[in-house]
Amino acid sequence: MEDKASKFSVQQLFTNLFKKAVTTFKERALLLVLVGLVGGLLGLTYSLLRHTKYQAEITFLVEENKAGGGLLSSLGSQIGIDVSSMAGAGNSVISGDNMLELLKSKSMMQECLLTPFQKDSNYLLADRYAEVYNLRKQWAKDAKVGKEVFFNDAKTDTRLKDSLLSVIIKRIHKKEFSVSKPDKKLGFFKVSTSTNDELLSEYISERIIKIATDFYVNNKTSRLKSNIARLEHRTDSIGQLLNNRTYSAVNDTRYMLNLNPADVNVQGSAEISQRDKMVLYTVYAELIKNLEISKTALVQETPTIQITDRPILPLENDEIKWYEGLLIGFFAPFLFLFIIFLI
Which residues touch 56 (CB under 8 Å, ≥6 apart)? Predict the structure, then answer.
């Protein structure tokens, strides 16, 4: 009996609620429809005037080798060379985790914005950004600027361009650009750019990664490259001296064929030439050995930057279709007001 009463009461509740909803709609139909139409008109206007954001996401991997480790370190220790110190182990200015801050740095974004929008063009990314957001008109109306500024114009004051560029960079970092590391245990990084222009979002994401990773790799390998350059210069110098000493030793040997037994100086000169040749040969061999080890260390210590996901046109966007704005604008206030009357 209790179950039947409970079932009956629930059914009765829904029945009463439905009757009340119908009565409320009949009594307030005109007001509800009017509010819905106003909301629909506002939603339609918003969808037409709203700027669509285009999002470009790039995921890349930074893979680093442990400096001076493994077989290369063992080989170097056998011949008396500290490969770890040559590779700069423990002295690296930046590490993988610092890639996050590197990508967020003002200098990286500034260099990115000053690249051409299209290949072999004087039209820069910064100029494109100013055009997309109508910043030039705002600058022309500003009392401190008072004119439209083009970043590719050499006649414009450098200080003014740097100041406006800083404003753009702050705006991008605050609203439109983000860098994250999805998993702290892995070397994956994600860069996301969301602007009102599809190509602008794509170019900023791609170019800042190129600029930052080039800087990163050059920084990680700069010491080894410098060592290799010095070794190559020294090897070439010693090699030239060895060639000259070899020709000299050959000439001394030829003189020895017609040697006067009483001429002691010729024998001494020949011995000195052979000694110098052997010393130079030993030094040259060691330099060649060190140079090859340094080149191998450079290959081992160069980080691998691999892009795993890149943006594909058309980019993902948050566009609201006109009919979506109309329907959402109509039903949202309609249902809200209807529930209030119903309660």
Answer: 192, 193, 194, 201, 202, 204, 205, 206, 311, 315
Q: pTM for the whole thing?
A: 0.70
Q: Is the peptide bond before 314 cis (omega within 30 degrees of 0)?
A: yes
The SS3 assignment for 55 reads strand
* pLDDT tens for each residue of 205-234: 999 999 998 888 888 888 888 889 998 999
CA–CA gap between residue 32 and residue 109 (Å, rounded): 51
pLDDT value for 332 = 85
The token duo for 318 is 């948050």
Report d(CA 174, CA 177) in Å as an integer. Answer: 7
Q: Please report the pLDDT score of residue 93 as a whole number.
A: 41
160 touches 140 (CB < 8 A) = no
Tokens of 194: 């969301």
Place of tokens 């060592």: 227
Q: Which residue has the higher pLDDT, 196 or 9?
A: 196
The answer to whether 58 and 190 have CB atoms below 8 angstroms apart is yes
Q: What is the Cα–Cα distance from 205 to 332, expressed in whole angstroms?
A: 37
Report residue 109 CA to chain centroid gap. 9
Report the first-to-last Cα separation within the chain, whole angstroms: 31
User: CB-based contacts of 298: which residues, under 8 Å, 6+ apart?
Assistant: 221, 224, 225, 228
Cα–Cα nearest to 171, from 116, 115, 126, 118: 126
Beta strands in 114-207 (DSSP E): 177-180, 188-195
What is the dihedral sign for C-alpha 318, 322, 324, 330?
A: positive
Which residues neighbour 268 within 8 Å (Cβ) at sequence distance 6 or greater?
none
Strand stretches in the chain, DSSP E: 54-63, 177-180, 188-195, 304-309, 316-317
Residues 107 and 170 sit within 8 Å (Cβ to Cβ): no
Q: Where are the domains of the chain?
A: 2-50+322-342, 54-317
123, 128, 280, 281 from 116: Cα distances, Å:
6, 10, 52, 52
